[in-house]
């Protein structure tokens, strides 16, 4: 893997993460409050599902 690929991916993540607060700041605030009240187990499950989905998509794109 090239550093350019890694930095490009990181930049894309930052752009995607910034879209929701920019487009709908109040909705983002409500979502963050809801997430802050979730149990740790639920957050871990959501994180794991996200990781598996991301790895699956990466595998399909790079294969």
How does this structure look, described?
With about 60 residues, the chain is an all-alpha fold. It has one domain (about 5-60). Helix content is about 90%, strand content about 0%. It is built from three helices and no strands. The radius of gyration is 15 Å and the shape is flat. It starts with a helix and ends with a helix. The model has no long low-confidence stretch (mean pLDDT about 95).
What is the topology?
Elements (H helix, E strand, L loop, with lengths): L2 H21 L1 H12 L3 H23 L1
Helix pairs in contact: 1-2
Quick synopsis:
This protein is mainly α.
Q: What is the rounded distance between the termini?
A: 15 Å
Helix content: over 70%
Instruction: Write the element-wise H/E pattern from the N-terminal end onward.
Output: HHH
- Estimate what percentage of residues fall within beta strands: under 5%
- How many domains, in number, for the residues? 1
Which structural class best describes the helix and strand composition?
mainly alpha
Query: Runs with pLDDT <50, length 5+?
Result: none
The count of DSSP E runs of length 2 or more, i.e. the number of strands, is 0
Q: Biggest sheet: strands, sense, closure?
A: none
